Amino acid sequence: MQRHIISILIENESGALSRVAGLFSARGYNIESLTVAPTEDPSLSRMTILTSGSDEVLEQITKQLNKLVDVVKVVDLSEAAHVERELMLIKVRATGKDREEMKRMADIFRGRIIDVTESTFVIELTGASAKLDSFISALDAGLILETVRTGVCGIGRGDRILKV
Amino acid sequence: MISGAEIVIRCLQEEKVDCVFGYPGGSVLHIYDALFKQDQVKHILVRHEQAAVHAADAYSRSSQRVGVALVTSGPGVTNTVTGIATAYMDSIPMVVLTGQVPSFYIGQDAFQECDTVGITRPCVKHNFLVKDVKDLAITIKKAFHIASTGRPGPVVVDIPKDITAQMCEFDYPKTIQMRSYNPVVKGHLGQIKKAVQILQEAKRPIIYTGGGVILSDAAEQLTKLAHKLNFPVTNTLMGLGGYPATDKQFVGMLGMHGTFEANNAMHYADVILAIGARFDDRVIGNPEHFSEEKRRVIHIDIDPSSISKRVKVDVPIVGNVPDVLEEIMKLMDGGFKTDPDVANWWKQIDAWRGRDSLRYKQSEHIMPQYVMEKLYEVTGGNAFVTSDVGQHQMFAAQYYKFDKPRRWINSGGLGTMGVGLPYGMGVLMANPDAQVACVTGEGSIQMCIQELSTCKQYGFPIKIINLNNGMLGMVRQWQEMFYSKRYSQSYVTSLPDFVKLAEAYGHVGMKIEKPEDVEPALRKAFTEHKNDLVFMDFIIDPVANVFPMVAAGKGLTEMILAEDL
Ligand SMILES: Cc1ncc(C[n+]2csc(CCOP(=O)(O)OP(=O)(O)O)c2C)c(N)n1
Ligand SMILES: [Mg+2]
Asked: Which of B142, B161, B374, B463 is catalytic?
């Protein structure tokens, strides 16, 4: 079972997302995270799916995705050099001496505090998913009020370009 | 400017659609009105929407054209789902036009609203909801294009009622380009060369072909190639007729109820040339057992996702089957030699053939196998045979020798009981002069029995061969063999008098109870009653089972033969 990041260019039609999600559930493939938004060409959406499976399963996933009529292109980003990022917003309790501690932790992880109240901070953190995980485990669990993550998105390095 | 409803009909005319199978209702009233005002596109009024889709499906299966169904929103659509899924599993090109509530009502739980695109999504090749009358013609064009190209399949076009009332210019595109949909058609030459090399090295080869050969109209090329190679050929249930069953290189159908020789040849082959087939679970039995033998596999298919899905393939060739076969033969002309060891392989195959695995014992009852043999004789092997699902389906597949493609019309992938009668209607619309036999069972026929009324209205002279064992025979067979004869709900009681039932619908009914009456009754039905629908109720041996059989979980060579019992 290997972790794979699949990037998909798909016609920006209503229902496109449900075709992809439906394919994964119908065939029993994993979706760990899924992100989607229009590209610079608004008629196309780009989807990033974090999945896992054996080589055979991954081969089927890409073939089945390619078979969807709305799908224009599919690549397995993790097959070659790529960069990946995920964004997290995390709301923490920040009172008394914790306030200073939270600010220090955010700095260490290169997070930014983007909302401040008397008792809470919202910290924005971007990075590879593992970095977001370690930030969460570095904090005192009792102080975490809420987290939200976008899921992974990624892009090939250098000349690896996914375009129509 | 013409209305959306008129656009729908004009599109059908442009696509040279000569008939649609349908059932009216609120959301499609405008379309039915437009249909009324012309006579180019004929409409066949079924008695249940499921039958409309099955008939359209068989229209496609039995011709090289695309069948069309037209139904109303809500229950009209939900009634089609079985038919759409049936066509999808067997990759049958088909366009289903569905009415939808007016677009401004969508999402409000309007009367007869359902999420058609959502409900059908997992069982269509593609589907569309038309949101603007300006998109209507191009969407229908796309639907026909997608349904009939690449690996074919059903396409649903959902059309809200208000759109069928709106006015618009009509301009039907001649061709269509879609950046997201460009199926590969030409096989990779390098791979084809590799394949030819392997075929030349093969000592124990088999050509294993499926529905893809029929769908791509490659029967002629397949026969030529097989003769050049002098390799044995086996067909899947879906592939029957893709290679002439009476040819001496044909070893019969393979799989769960395949012949002894076909299953052994497939298992022990050192080279498998798979063409338009997908190694499904009913074909190869237990995959672990199947993979115990070392062999090389060449797989030709239009759909890349069918390749290496269940069995690892050494030489994948994605492309249109007839073209790839032509390429192979071209390369073979450069001095191809079949390995001399293939002669020994034929000896082995003949030894397997010697087991005569389709032998059966006559009894005082009518044996279903016997009815199939007589049906074959009486129709001269020229009938279109539609079938339902169960033991009778397997008997038809085993004992009716199909020499031509598109003559064997059955639900292989989904295994849908009830298709047989509406399939007969679809076959007759595509082939008006054909002899059509619907081989069915007393269980299956009752799932779409209402179509006897449609058959009366349009004069479809289908010969219904009801192999009546008073049992859900295929279920009973499994219960007998694997559930210690606990016949849970497989016995059909309170059967109607089928002769009277046929007569009530205005048809001819016959009840046949003795073996010696089988042939005369069939002759009578196909001559004297050539133009009538004849319901032939054959009271058969209630406990006849289908053999050979590869039980679920068993290997392909671990067959139970009739002689073992
Ligand atoms: C719609 C549907 N429901 C259930 C089944 C499961 N099933 C497969 S064969 C069979 C029995 C069919 O009985 P009959 O039509 O009398 O044929 P026989 O096997 O007796 O020849 C059943 C219930 C099915 N294939 N399709
Ligand atoms: Mg029965």
From this structure: B161
Half-sphere exposure in the Cβ direction for B41 (13 Å, CA): 26
Rounded to a whole number of angstroms, the CA Rg of chain B reads 24
Beta-strand pair B205-209/B463-468: unpaired
Please answer yes or no on whether A64 and B118 come within 8 Å at the CB atom.
no
Q: In the annotation, is B112 catalytic?
A: yes
Whether the complex's predicted ipTM surpasses the cut of 0.85: yes
Q: Is the Cβ pair A69, B146 closer than 8 Å?
A: yes
For chain B, 565 residues long, the average pLDDT of each consecutive 10-residue run is: 98 98 98 98 98 98 98 98 98 98 97 98 98 98 98 98 98 95 94 98 98 98 98 98 98 98 98 97 94 96 95 97 98 95 98 97 96 98 98 98 98 98 98 98 98 98 98 97 97 95 98 98 98 98 97 95 82
Tell me if B222 sits within 8 A of B329, measured CB to CB.
Answer: no
Comparing CA positions, the residue from B510, B511, B513 lying closest to residue B534 is: B510
Chain pair A-B, CB pairs under 8 angstroms: 37
Give the other-Cβ count within 10 Å of B531's Cβ: 7
Going by DSSP bridges, is the β-strand pair B296-301/B271-275 parallel, antiparallel, or unpaired? Answer: parallel
pLDDT tens for B249-266 read 999 999 999 999 999 999
Residue contact A164–B178, C-beta within 8 A: no
Alpha-carbon distance of B396 to B408, in angstroms, equals 9
Report the distance separating Cα B437 and Cα B415, nearest Å: 18
Pinpoint the alpha helices (H) of B69-132: 75-78, 81-89, 116-120
Q: Is B107 on the interface with A (CB under 8 A)?
A: no
B456 as an active site residue: the answer is no
pLDDT of residue B84: 99
**What is the spatial distance between Cα B464 and Cα B449, in angstroms, rounded to a whole number?**
11
Residues of A with a Cβ under 8 Å from any B Cβ are: 10-11, 14-15, 18-19, 22, 26, 56, 59-60, 63-64, 66-67, 69-72, 164
The CB of B442 under 6 Å from ligand 1? The reply is yes
- What is the reported pTM? 0.97
